[in-house]
Amino acid sequence: MQNTTLQGKTALITGSTSGIGLGIARALAQQGAHIVLNGFGDANEIAALQAGLTQDYGVQSTYHPADMSRPQEIAAMMQFAAAKFGSVDILVNNAGIQHVADIEDFPVEKWDAIIAINLSSAFHTTRLALPAMKEKNWGRIINIASAHGLVGSAQKSAYVAAKHGIVGLSKVTALENAQTGVTCNAICPGWVLTPLVQKQVDVRAANEDVSNDDAKKGLLAEKQPSGEFVTPEQLGALAVFLCSEAANQVRGAAWSMDGGWTAQ
């Protein structure tokens, strides 16, 4: 079933071959937006995702494999999207990686990679998307931050630094474009059961010799008062709202969807 709220718009979502990014891609496609997917994965599986978006929602879908740590590849992806669809109207910066270690033990190359993919990539896509958005006087930039964009956690120095940076970048982007039809906001999810989080659950289950279900409950109990994971579908619905006319004056917000994590 398809609505037409975003008919004729093009949405590019980084890191959208699974998890949060794919949930947002599907939600925007349901509203009629053409989709540019990006991320790693098996070529056949990615082709199936594209076909599914077209079949389920009647929109055009394409894919670009840009490595989000490489500015030249990001530029190539933005050019590819513009050549295919005219311009990027909705930009969702979602690509992210994680590494856990104390600061003094944190591998320098992991720090550099996390800052590049989780933060710098959003700067590059934004700077390249803005001119066409401003020309049309309409655009939506949605940066997927995290509860860790608002609060810290031990052993996640690079991730927390990058996500705090994403919140700051969102504010500046919003302010610079405050008198235009281009808005920029950050979404700050709590725990979502993405492949990234499932890895943390698996490690916890092995370390504590407990079942996967018990490991999930333990993880949630530490941070998320609701005791439930946020879903990609819920985040997709929030992204759709931020693209709507109702959100015209939502600018520079860091919108928590975290089961109460940052309310504590």
Automatic annotation (TrEMBL):
<dbReference type="InterPro" id="IPR002347">
    <property type="entry name" value="SDR_fam"/>
</dbReference>
<protein>
    <submittedName>
        <fullName>D-beta-hydroxybutyrate dehydrogenase (BDH) (3-hydroxybutyrate dehydrogenase) (3-HBDH)</fullName>
        <ecNumber>1.1.1.30</ecNumber>
    </submittedName>
</protein>
<dbReference type="InterPro" id="IPR020904">
    <property type="entry name" value="Sc_DH/Rdtase_CS"/>
</dbReference>
<dbReference type="GO" id="GO:0032787">
    <property type="term" value="P:monocarboxylic acid metabolic process"/>
</dbReference>
<comment type="similarity">
    <text>Belongs to the short-chain dehydrogenases/reductases (SDR) family.</text>
</comment>
<dbReference type="InterPro" id="IPR036291">
    <property type="entry name" value="NAD(P)-bd_dom_sf"/>
</dbReference>
<keyword id="KW-0560">Oxidoreductase</keyword>
<dbReference type="GO" id="GO:0003858">
    <property type="term" value="F:3-hydroxybutyrate dehydrogenase activity"/>
</dbReference>
<dbReference type="InterPro" id="IPR050259">
    <property type="entry name" value="SDR"/>
</dbReference>
<dbReference type="InterPro" id="IPR011294">
    <property type="entry name" value="3-OHbutyrate_DH"/>
</dbReference>
<dbReference type="Pfam" id="PF00106">
    <property type="entry name" value="adh_short"/>
</dbReference>
